[in-house]
Amino acid sequence: MWIEVIPDDFSDSTLAMKIKFLSLLAATLLLPISYAHAGAGDENLDAATKARIALFEKGPDKIDVSAYPKGIQADYRVFREKCTLCHKLSRPINSDYVLPSEWSRYVKRMMFKPGSNISKVAAKRIYEFLVFDASVRKKAELDAKLAKLAPAERNAMVAKIDAIHQEYAGK
Ligand code: HEC
Prior knowledge:
Elements: H1 12-36, H2 47-57, H3 70-82, H4 90-93, H5 100-111, H6 120-137, H7 139-147, H8 151-168
The structure holds heme C.
């Protein structure tokens, strides 16, 4: 064992040697862990975020879109294809993001992750799907968040949601 090669007296050089050994050991142990999660990129998250995300992922991994407009149903397919590359679809499906501003920030964030391969067109469709879906399936959470906004911001958010409903009406 490497511990046995460290003498008992803690001279500076021994300490430096011990630190070197420890970091080498840590690197050897941690390397396979970070490789195993390389696809997800979750390894640097703080504990609270990890716990929140784990809870989302325990929820359903699909949405019944049969009552949504046809165009939104098509966007749902883009969402399913693009947002399952690194994590489960249940992560965004059960997320507490509901506002257009939250989805716009998050879709952009996912878009810029290395290897995500999400075009601007796909990102827009996914964003529109998520905003539409939140306004139907998470209406209570959406209304609660809207109520907390300053009037100008609330009006801007409502206008964005309405525009998406209008864009897809009858399509
Ligand atoms: C390239 C890999 C990758 C792709 C593709 C990807 N994600 Fe993620 N996603 C991550 C990582 C890594 C995290 C955790 C760290 C973070 O939030 O940035 C995450 C976290 C999330 C979270 C939880 C955020 C939180 O803190 O509550 C949501 C919601 C989410 N992603 C939605 C999406 C959506 C929607 C898409 C499709 C547009 C998508 N992801 C595509 C890697 C990806």
